Amino acid sequence: MNSIVVGLQWGDEGKGKIVQHLSKSHDWVVRFSGGPNAGHTIYYNGQKFIHHLIPSGTKNNKLFISRGTLVDLEVLNDEIKSMERIFPEIRNNIYISAWCRVISPIEKDLDIKIEELKGSNAVGTTKRGIGPTVADDAHRAGLRIFDFFSEEKLRRKLTTLALISKPLIGDVDVDNILESLLKEFKKIKVRVKEASINGSVLFEATQAIMLDPMYGTYPYVTSTSCLPSSAPYFSGLFNKNPEVFGVFKAYTTRVGSGPFPTEIFDEESEKLRKAGGEFGSTTGRSRRCGWIDLPLLKYACDVANVDHLIMTKADVLNGFDRIGVCQEYEGEVLPYALESARPKVDYVKGWKNLQDIAFKDFLSVIERIVKRKVEYISFGPKEEDIKPI
Ligand code: IMP
Ligand code: MG
Predict the structure, then answer these.
(1) Rounded to an integer, what distance in angstroms lies between the CA atom of residue 299 and that of residue 164?
(2) Domain limits of the chain?
(3) Cα end-to-end distance, the chain, whole Å
(4) How far apart are CA 353 and CA 210, in angstroms?
(5) Which one-letter DSSP state was computed for residue 285?
(6) H-only helix segments in 213-266
(7) pTM of the full predicted structure?
(8) pLDDT digit string (tens) for 350-374?
(9) What is the CA 296 to chain-centroid distance, rounded?
(10) Strand residue runs (E) in the chain
(11) How far apart are CA 4 and CA 31, in angstroms?
(12) Nearest ligand, CA of residue 111?
């Protein structure tokens, strides 16, 4: 069986841990989207590790960074180095597609500059160069890993990129950038090959449906597709039609700007942030917190065509007196018009633990609105903290 793990809210639903759990029954774990903007937190033998580019599998998996992934070579090398302390064999298990787009320092500077120019309309990006790298690729001026096999070609492309971006970021030192990129490339050069895959595949999607550039809360979105249906195209694995595991938190969080109809601001929000450890794993930013938004969750389930639904962090709400639930909106639910949306939030009774009848009632409300069964509950950060229901 082939599978995909996808986030159904605005990211940070705990995909990494679910991927780690499911990786045990798959041969390959494959990334096809996002880049170092992603931060998937997992625990290996009690040791916390944040994956940015390497798929969240274990030493028994082959790991493929396929063509849709945006690669920052320095971040990748740092990640390989720190993972080697836990899995010495990791280096030999990694395959990197030559088609991957490469983020250069030019795009990272552009990301910062464009956000600055947008002023109060800034997206609140992770500043990892994601948007500008996709834009440069659309201009057919971006760097791909296959360009790195010829220093001459790479120099020409970098020179063009420098010219295109000059009006925004001024002059850049092409020689210096070339040298540092090549130095990083040399370390992964032998890993650059298209994986020839036999066995089962687990796709690890990045970000989440509401951050998808075409189906999310545009313009407050990321720049690569977050949908399961894009996995075959962006990985090149056309015959690995996956079953979809959709992951959502028992409440909602969001980092960066953009509409968040069920956001809360008071002490309850602070309590939620503390209890859930809701601080960004890539940027360290405080995450915005709010209640579960079922009309949006239903929309995301439909867009992702979810087969299996997984709730994470249910335990974080243990001990809350009351828990907010948005079951409907006054008017239509349109992801691009959420700023003026009017969600109706009701409160259900809190629970002490997940055996409590109040938790079961909460589950029933969710299942009724999203029209799917919640099949698994994750109740802690460790790989084994998950059970079917
Ligand atoms: P970018 O992907 O860095 O361009 O950021 C665009 C938006 O997506 C911002 O609101 C980010 O905070 C958000 N974002 C990007 N990656 C993640 C992620 O892995 N988790 C949560 N939010 C993310
Ligand atoms: Mg994350």
Answers:
(1) 39
(2) 3-98+192-244, 101-190, 248-388
(3) 21
(4) 29
(5) P
(6) 231-235
(7) 0.97
(8) 999 999 999 999 999 999 999 999 9
(9) 18
(10) 3-7, 28-31, 40-44, 47-51, 62-65, 70-71, 94-96, 101-102, 143-144, 201-204, 243-249, 252-254, 288-290, 292-293, 308-312, 322-330, 342-349, 374-378, 386-388
(11) 10
(12) 1
- Superfamily for the 248-388 domain: Adenylosuccinate Synthetase, subunit A, domain 3 (3.90.170.10)
Please indicate whether residue 72 is annotated as part of the active site. no
pLDDT digits (tens, 9 = 90+) for 144-197: 999 999 999 999 999 999 999 999 999 999 999 999 999 999 999 999 999 999
Structural contact between residues 350 and 317, judged by C-beta atoms closer than 8 angstroms: yes
Catalytic residue flag (residue 321)? no
CATH 2.40.30.10 applies to domain 101-190: no
Longest dimension (CA), the chain: 67
Q: Which atom of ligand 1 is nearest to the CA of 130?
A: 4
Residue 121 neighbours by CB under 8 Å, 6+ apart: 219, 257
Q: What SS3 state is found at 172?
A: coil
Q: How far apart are CA 38 and CA 12, in angstroms?
A: 9
Position 79 scores a pLDDT of: 96
Pocket residues: Cβ below 6 A from ligand 1: 11-12, 37-39, 123-126, 128, 130-131, 207, 211, 220, 222-223, 255-256
Report the topology of domain 3-98+192-244.
Adenylosuccinate Synthetase; Chain A, domain 1 (3.40.440)
Task: Give the C-alpha separation, 389 to 387, whole Å.
Answer: 6
Q: How many CB atoms lie within 10 A of CB 155?
A: 16
Distance (angstroms) between ligand 2 centre and the Cα of 41 equals 7
- CA distance linking residue 46 with residue 28, whole number of Å: 23
